[in-house]
Amino acid sequence: MYNQPFRKMENNKVVQRIYSKIEEIPTLSPLLQKIVGLIESRKADAHDVTEVISHDPSLTSKVLKVANSAYYGFPKKIDSLDRAVVLLGFNMIRSLAMSIGFIKTFSSGKKSGRFSRERLWIHNLAVATVIKELAMKYGRQDESESLFITGLLHDIGKMVLDQFFTEEYQQALDEAGCLESASVCDAENRFFGMDHGEVGKILLKRWNFPAAICSLVAMDHKTDVPEGVNAADVAMLHIADILTKEAGMGVSESITPSEIRKADLDALGISGNEIEDLRAFLSEAKESIYEFYGTVR
Ligand SMILES: [Fe+2]
Ligand SMILES: [Fe+2]
After folding, report:
1. Average predicted confidence (pLDDT) for the chain
2. Which of 128, 161, 250, 295 could link 152 by a cystine bridge, Cβ 3.0 to 4.6 Å?
3. Domains, the chain, ranges and CATH?
4. What one-character DSSP code corresponds to residue 281?
5. 81-88 helix and 90-105 helix, angle to the nearest 10 degrees
6. How far apart are CA 70 and CA 186, in angstroms?
7. CA gyration radius for the chain?
8. H/E/C letters for each residue in 90-149?
9. Which of 99-103, 198-202, 254-258, 278-282 has the lowest mean pLDDT?
């Protein structure tokens, strides 16, 4: 069956296959479901976050380890979850707990072997870090943690295709001839009727992520911003993705990242100089991103 190229199937049948497969993907662990539920709940507060995390001793200890790492650069030792919530804020602790949970859940499983999960998670963490910095600088402070989560999960569709459509994805990537470029999305579209951004959106919807995060993940490699999606957020995702690839934190080492689009700079109202500042920011954060991953893997 796998020798039969899927692009020969009728497109809607192919798309239907993705939907049915995603239905089969196990739901998140009860703990991760609770953490995701905390994003949606406007009433969630520091106490709710501590309550959910503290029920899991291994998560609690990892949260504290990362909270004490160079990534957050806190001068004094943070020795309890309550303290971490006070010092870093409950939104930040919530996205930290979510990062730990997702990295743990999606680090194993069947793989095509075409790219390493480690590289993909480091890429995701780097995009999350840069998009959050952009949000803080360019008027989206209130959304900065939600944008961090978008960055963290923006390429989760790749993991779904890699893990649940292993042979076909291998074929698609071989046909694209590389791991990251427009041709990967073209190959995904030919084989699956959609690209990994859209696959990610379907999965995150199923897991009850807020609509804004789902829609933004679908825009990972798209430029026509639909109504209801914030164009500045899309621009931030595109820019963060390119900057991390430039910094050698893409899924593959040997890639030539695309140029940052003028339309994305315009959507944020930023200049080339500001992009230089972001490059410097990422180069400084790089080591601590590796440390973050090393601590939670
Ligand atoms: Fe992507
Ligand atoms: Fe990416």
Report:
1. 90
2. 128
3. 10-296 (1.10.3210.10)
4. H
5. 120
6. 39
7. 19
8. HHHHHHHHHHHHHHHHCCCCCCCCCCCHHHHHHHHHHHHHHHHHHHHHCCCHHHHHHHHH
9. 254-258
What is the longest distance spanned by two Cα atoms in the chain? 60
**Is residue 9's pLDDT more than 60?**
no
Identify the pLDDT of residue 8.
Answer: 43
* pTM passes above 0.85: yes
End-to-end C-alpha distance for the chain, whole angstroms? 35
Average pLDDT, integer, range 34-52:
88
- Residue 127: CA count within 13 A, CB half-sphere: 32
CA neighbor of 118 nearest in space, from 130, 103, 134, 135: 103
Ligand 2 geometric centre to CA of 89 (Å): 27
- The identity of residue 119, as a single letter, is R
Residue 98 Cα to ligand 1 midpoint, Å, equals 20
> Looking at the CA of 157, which ligand is closest?
1
Amino acid at 29: S
- Triad 155, 152, 162: Cα angle to 5°: 30
Q: How far is the CA of 124 from the centre of ligand 2 (A)?
A: 7
Joined tokens for residue 296? 């939670």
**For residue 5, pLDDT beyond 60:** no
Helix H or strand E segment including 206: helix 196-206
Q: Quick one: pLDDT at residue 10?
A: 55
> Is the distance from CB of 236 to CB of 150 less than 8 angstroms?
no
Q: Is the pLDDT of residue 4 over 50?
A: no
DSSP character string of 52-103: HHHT-HHHHHHHHHHHTSTTTT-SS---SHHHHHHHH-HHHHHHHHHHHHHH
